[in-house]
C-alpha cells in the first residue's frame, strides 16, 4: 500500500549475508511503506530478519551483507544508490537510530553532552555555544531535570535507563523524520520499558516523527503502533493495522504469537500455547511456505510452492494459502 | 589524589635507594680498577699505585665508600670521575643535554609518524596501505638496530649527503643562530633516522591493534549511524578510546629518552651520554657508570608515573575508580 504522503517506500528489497562462502538470505522481497509521522511495528522471532530490515533503511548493515535487489526510497531519493558521503548527511539528521543496548552504543571516554554535540556538529552546527544550548534542550526534552549535570557525565556514571534517554536524545537532536528503534527496551527492566516507550510516544506526538519499531515482544507495540508487519524467515507474512493484526490475526504464525502474548503471566509452562518446532534454518529453507513444517493448519499445497501475498481485507496483506 | 602522588614519590625514593646500593655494590665487586692499566707500566712503582688508590679512597671498605658516594649525591655532585678529575654531575651535564635533544626529537617524530600510520592502516584494514605498513613494520622490527645504523652510515659516507660524527661542523661558532640550528639538525639526521626506524614500528603495531579493536565496537557503529564519519570519527571518537595501550607505551619511550639512544650515539659519534658511558665502563671510572644507571632508573620511574597520570587524565573509567587501586 503506497500513498503520496509516504516517507519511505521499500520495494522488493532482498538482503543476504555471505557466511563461509555461502549466501544466506535474511530479507526476501520485502515491500512496505511508512507514512510521515506513522509508527510501524515489526514483530518476529530472533533470526526473522527484522533487524536486518530495520538497519537496511539506514544503510547500516555490516560489510558482509549484500543488497540483492529492490529499492528503498526515502523522500524521493533511493538510499541504495547513495554514496557513503551522501548517507552520512542523511544518517543522524533525517534518519536516526535508537540502539538496543545503551551501554554499548555510547563512547565510554567521551562526556555524553559532547557525544550529542558531535551529532549536531556533523550536521552543520558550527557554533559551540549554540551546540551546548541545543544539547541542554534535547536532554530536558527526554526527561532530565538537570541537563547540564548529565551532559558532563560519562556513560558509566549513568544508569541503564538514563543511558537509553541519552541515546534517544542523540537520535532526536537533529529532528529526524524517521527514527529506527531496534528492540529499544529489551535491555531494560520492565518498569523502565514502560517509561521509555511512553517517552518515545510523547516525542513522536511533539515532533511528528515516523518510527520503525522492532521487537519480538507484542507488548512493546500496545497502544501506539499504527501498523504492524509480522516477519518470519526473512519474509513479511502479514501486514495490517495494529488492531487488525492483534485483534484477529490471519497468518497461523501471527495467531501463534498473539496467543502466546495473550496468556496471563504465571501460566504453568505446560499450559502455555506454544508454536511447536524450531525456528527455521535460513540456509535450508523448504521449497514451499517457510512456516509449513511448524504450521498447525498446513495443507498439501503448502509444501509444494511458496504462497503469494493476498489482500483479504482493505489495507491488509497476508501470505498464506488459507486466504488465496 | 594528593596522598596517591605522595605515596608514589615515597616509593620512588625507596626504589632509587635500592637501585643505588645494588649498582654501587655490583660495580665495585666487578674485577678490575681504574689503575689496572698503570700497574702494567714497569716505570711506576707499586707504592705510587697504592698511594693513588688511597687518594681516591679505593682501598677503604665498601660501606664507607658508599657513604662517601651518598654524601656526594646529596651535594649534587653524583660521585667523582677519576678519569676527568671532576664531579660526575658536571661531566655528564652537557652530554645529557645532547642525548635529550636527540632522544626528544626522535621520540616526537616517532609519535607524529606512528599515530596517523596506525589509525589509517586500522581504518583501511587489509587494504594495500595496511599491508604495506604491516610489511614495513615487520621488516624494521626484525632488523637489529646496529645493522640499520651501519647501513645508514655506509650510505652517508658514500653519498656525502649527510655529515657523520659529532654534532657541529668546523666553523660552527661563526654561523648565525639559524645556521647553527641547521648545522645541528644536519648532524642529527643520521641518528634520528635510525632511532625513528627502530621506534616507529613498535608503536604502529600496538596502536594499530587497539584502534582496529575499537573500530569494531558498537559505539563506533552508533556514531556512524549518527552521520559522524571520516577523520573526525577516527581521531576524535576512536583514537581516544584506543589510546590506553599507546599511553603506556609513551611512558616507556619517555623512560628511554636518556638510555634508548646510547648505541646509536656511539656508532654515529653523537656527543651524548653513549660514548661517555662506554668509555667510563671500559676504564672502570665507576662513579660515572653508577650515575648513568641511576639516571636510567630515575627516568623509568618518571616515565611510568607520567603514563599513570596520563591514563588517569585520558580514561574517565579509571578516574572514577580509586586511583590507588591501579
Topology diagram in text:
The complex is a heterodimer of chains A (324) and B (326).
Chain A: E1 6-19, E2 22-35, E3 39-43, H1 50-56, E4 65-74, E5 77-78, H2 84-90, E6 95-98, H3 102-105, H4 112-122, H5 128-141, H6 147-151, H7 160-172, E7 178-182, H8 190-207, E8 210-215, E9 227-232, E10 235-241, H9 242-247, H10 252-262, E11 309-310, E12 317-319
Parallel strand pairs in A: 3-8, 3-9, 6-7, 7-8
Antiparallel strand pairs in A: 1-2, 1-4, 4-5, 9-10, 10-12, 11-12
Helix pairs in contact in A: 4-5, 4-7, 5-7
Chain B: H1 2-29, H2 36-39, H3 46-55, H4 62-75, E1 80-81, E2 86-87, H5 88-123, H6 128-142, H7 145-159, H8 177-215, H9 218-225, H10 230-241, H11 244-255, H12 262-268, H13 273-283, H14 286-314, H15 316-320
Plain-language structure description:
The complex is a heterodimer of chains A (324) and B (326). Chain A has 324 residues and is α/β, with parallel strands linked by helices. Chain A has a domain at 6-83 and 179-184 and 212-323: P-loop containing nucleotide triphosphate hydrolases (Rossmann fold, 3-Layer(aba) Sandwich). Helices cover 30% and strands 24% of the residues of chain A. Chain A has ten helices and twelve strands. In chain A, a hairpin with a 2-residue loop joins strand 1 and strand 2 (22-35). In chain A, helix 4 packs across helix 5. Chain A is globular and about 70 Å long. The mean pLDDT of chain A is 90. Chain B is mostly helical and 326 residues long. Chain B folds into two domains: 2-88, no CATH class; 91-325, MetI-like fold, CATH 1.10.3720. In chain B, 75% of the residues lie in helices and 1% in strands. Chain B has 15 helices and two strands. Chain B has helices at residues 2-29, 36-39, 46-55, 62-75, 88-123, 128-142, 145-159, 177-215, 218-225, 230-241, 244-255, 262-268, 273-283, 286-314, 316-320, and strands spanning 80-81, 86-87. The radius of gyration of chain B is 24 Å and the shape is globular. Chain B starts with a helix and ends in a 6-residue tail after the last helix. In chain B, 31% of the residues are buried. Chain A binds chain B through residues 58, 60, 84-85, 88-93, 96-97, 99, 101, 104-110, 115, 118-119, 122-123, 154, 156-157, 167, 170-171, and chain B through 217-219, 221-230, 232, 236-237, 240-241, 314-317, 320.
Amino acid at each position: 500500500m503506497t500513498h503520496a504522503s509516504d516517507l519511505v517506500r521499500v520495494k522488493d528489497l532482498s538482503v543476504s549475508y555471505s557466511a563461509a562462502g555461502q549466501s544466506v538470505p535474511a530479507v526476501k522481497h520485502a515491500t512496505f511503506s511508512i507514512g510521515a509521522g506513522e509508527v510501524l511495528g515489526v514483530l518476529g522471532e530472533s533470526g526473522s530478519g527484522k533487524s536486518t530490515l530495520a538497519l537496511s533503511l539506514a544503510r547500516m548493515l555490516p560489510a558482509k551483507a549484500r543488497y540483492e535487489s529492490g529499492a528503498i526510497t526515502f523522500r524521493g531519493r533511493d538510499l541504495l544508490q547513495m554514496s557513503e558521503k551522501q548517507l552520512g548527511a542523511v544518517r543522524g539528521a533525517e534518519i536516526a537510530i535508537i540502539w538496543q543496548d545503551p551501554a554499548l552504543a555510547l563512547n565510554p571516554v567521551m562526556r555524553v553532552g559532547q557525544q550529542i554535540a558531535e551529532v549536531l556538529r556533523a550536521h552543520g552546527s558550527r557554533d559551540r555555544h549554540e551546540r551546548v544550548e541545543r544539547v541542554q534542550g534535547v536532554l530536558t526534552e527526554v526527561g532530565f531535570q538537570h541537563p547540564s549535570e548529565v551532559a558532563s557525565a560519562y556513560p558509566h556514571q549513568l544508569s541503564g535507563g538514563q543511558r537509553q534517554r541519552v541515546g534517544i536524545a542523540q537520535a532526536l537532536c537533529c529532528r529526524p523524520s524517521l527514527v529506527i528503534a531496534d528492540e529499544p527496551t529489551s535491555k531494560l527492566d520492565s518498569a523502565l520499558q514502560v517509561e521509555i516507550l511512553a517517552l518515545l510516544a510523547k516525542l513522536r506526538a511533539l515532533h511528528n516523527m515516523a518510527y520503525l519499531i522492532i521487537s519480538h515482544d507484542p507488548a512493546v507495540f500496545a497502544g501506539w503502533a499504527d501498523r504492524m508487519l509480522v516477519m518470519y524467515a526473512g519474509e513479511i507474512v502479514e501486514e495490517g493495522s495494529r488492531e487488525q493484526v492483534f485483534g484477529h490475526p490471519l497468518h497461523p504464525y501471527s495467531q501463534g504469537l498473539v496467543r502466546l502474548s495473550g496468556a496471563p503471566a504465571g501460566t504453568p509452562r505446560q499450559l502455555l500455547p506454544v508454536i511447536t518446532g524450531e525456528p527455521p534454518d535460513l540456509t535450508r529453507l523448504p521449497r514451499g511456505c517457510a512456516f509449513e513444517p511448524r504450521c498447525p493448519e498446513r495443507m498439501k499445497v503448502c509444501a509444494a510452492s511458496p504462497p503469494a501475498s493476498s489482500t483479504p481485507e482493505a489495507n491488509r496483506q497476508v501470505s498464506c494459502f488459507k486466504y488465496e | 589524589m594528593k596522598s596517591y602522588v605522595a605515596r608514589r614519590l615515597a616509593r620512588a625514593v625507596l626504589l632509587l635507594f635500592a637501585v643505588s646500593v645494588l649498582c654501587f655494590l655490583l660495580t665495585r665487586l666487578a674485577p678490575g680498577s681504574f689503575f689496572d692499566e698503570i700497574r702494567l707500566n714497569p716505570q711506576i712503582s707499586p707504592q705510587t699505585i697504592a698511594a693513588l688508590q688511597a687518594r681516591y679512597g679505593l682501598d677503604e671498605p665498601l660501606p664507607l665508600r658508599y657513604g662517601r658516594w651518598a654524601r656526594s649525591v646529596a651535594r649534587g655532585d653524583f660521585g667523582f670521575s677519576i678519569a676527568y678529575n671532576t664531579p660526575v654531575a658536571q661531566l655528564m651535564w652537557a652530554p645529557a643535554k645532547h642525548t635529550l635533544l636527540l632522544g626528544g626529537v626522535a621520540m616526537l617524530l616517532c609519535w607524529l609518524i606512528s599515530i596517523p600510520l596506525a589509525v589509517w592502516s586500522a581504518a583501511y584494514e587489509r587494504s594495500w596501505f595496511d599491508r604495506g605498513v604491516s610489511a614495513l613494520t615487520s621488516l624494521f622490527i626484525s632488523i637489529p638496530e646496529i645493522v640499520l645504523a651501519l647501513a645508514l652510515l655506509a650510505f652517508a659516507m658514500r653519498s656525502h649527503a649527510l655529515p657523520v660524527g659529532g654534532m657541529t661542523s668546523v666553523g660552527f661558532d661563526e654561523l648565525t643562530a639559524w645556521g647553527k640550528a641547521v648545522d645541528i639538525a644536519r648532524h642529527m639526521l643520521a641518528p634520528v633516522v635510525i632511532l625513528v626506524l627502530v621506534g616507529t614500528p613498535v608503536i604502529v603495531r600496538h596502536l594499530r591493534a587497539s584502534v582496529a579493536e575499537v573500530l569494531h565496537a558498537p559505539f563506533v557503529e552508533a556514531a556512524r549511524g549518527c552521520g559522524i564519519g571520516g577523520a573526525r570519527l577516527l581521531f576524535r571518537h576512536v583514537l581516544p578510546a584506543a589510546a590506553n595501550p599507546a599511553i603506556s607505551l609513551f611512558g616507556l619511550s619517555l623512560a628511554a629518552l636518556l638510555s634508548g639512544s646510547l648505541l646509536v650515539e656511539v656508532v654515529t659519534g653523537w656527543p651524548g651520554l653513549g660514548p661517555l658511558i662506554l668509555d667510563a665502563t671500559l676504564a672502570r671510572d665507576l662513579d660515572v657508570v653508577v650515575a648513568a644507571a641511576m639516571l636510567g632508573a630515575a627516568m623509568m620511574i618518571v616515565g611510568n608515573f607520567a603514563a599513570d597520570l596520563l591514563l588517569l587524565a585520558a580514561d574517565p573509567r579509571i578516574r572514577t575508580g580509586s586511583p590507588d587501586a591501579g
